[in-house]
Design goal:
The protein has four helices and no strands. By secondary structure, it is an all-alpha fold.
Amino acid sequence: MKKADDIDPLDRKFSLASLSGKGVRGKYYSRVKKGSNLVRLSPEVAHLFPTEAAVNQALLSLAELSKSLPHLTKRPASSRAKAPRAR
């Protein structure tokens, strides 16, 4: 049994009967089926990029920069894990 402290205050305020309208099964199915890629930004990053367009522009700029400087995006051969030698 739940204690009084465990009960969400919104549970007491709202009930399914009091909600207007009925839920529609599959209402957003077509949108989800098309696909979406949601990413939660930390507050510090969200402050720097306040809009979706700003985030997209920054990421596209970074992608273009990485294409023009491929040596910066690859690990040097010395840092790669070496396979153990057979004895």
